[in-house]
Amino acid sequence: MMGRFGRSWPLTPDSLVHSSEVALLREIGSASSGEDGMNIIANHIKWIMLVSGVLTCTMVYAAIAPQEALRSTFGATLDGPVADIVVRNWGVLITLVGAMLIYGAFNPAVRTFALTVAGLSKVAFIALVLSHGSRYLGHQAGVAVFIDLVWVVLFAWYLLSRSSVTA
Q1: What whole-number distance in Å separates Cα of residue 5 and Cα of residue 28?
Q2: How far is it, in rounded angstroms, from Cα 67 to Cα 117?
């Protein structure tokens, strides 16, 4: 029986999975059995960049509500008009890095540049947060450090695989 969204009933686990997700799972499975994992990253870099870019763009929140963004990210706030300007600018700059990742996802000619700039920005953030020990890791900054670390590894993996192809 066809459901209202074009799915057949009863729903099975297989009917809930999109075909591209199945293809990705098959590629990951074949990579674990010996296929080059770099191909998986290269084949899915557009989606990696899109997801990373969209998540990075959520920091537009700091441009809109600087004190709330600081409180949720670091558990502290800064006072004064200069702090307001700096935090809003920080939010805009991070959002621009996210937009650059999204643009690079659709424009292969700028991918290397976009991934390099975004990766370096994320490494700087990670280093700055970790330079304070565990002080900020119990807030959203800790989650951001972990997620950014994953993005940096994926970006570097892609960039290294591309440079070995051209070398």
Answers
A1: 29
A2: 27
